[in-house]
Amino acid sequence: MSKRRLVITAVVVAGRTQGEVARAYGVSQGWVSRLVARYHAEGEAAFEPRSRRPKTSPTAIDTETVELPCSPPSPTGSVRVCARSR
Known about the structure:
Helix content: 25-40%
Structural class: alpha+beta
Strand content: 5-15%
Order of helices and strands: HHHEE
Strand order of the largest sheet: 1-2
Mean pLDDT: 82
Shape: elongated
Radius of gyration: 23 Å
């Protein structure tokens, strides 16, 4: 059984406090609170792990952008980039 399921079950079914459950499972009370809120909002989907990858990356370079090397790679394998072009 996953830790998420145990935490949610301990609070929702067993009626234990979020603080008590957080201490018992060695997690933060904020995480317990988020899991319980997610369970009330989404039901069984709350038991599934979620990606921590950001949905957007505002500073990322466009996928169409290409790096143009100035010179061949050095013996260490590094390449100096002179310009960026679309």
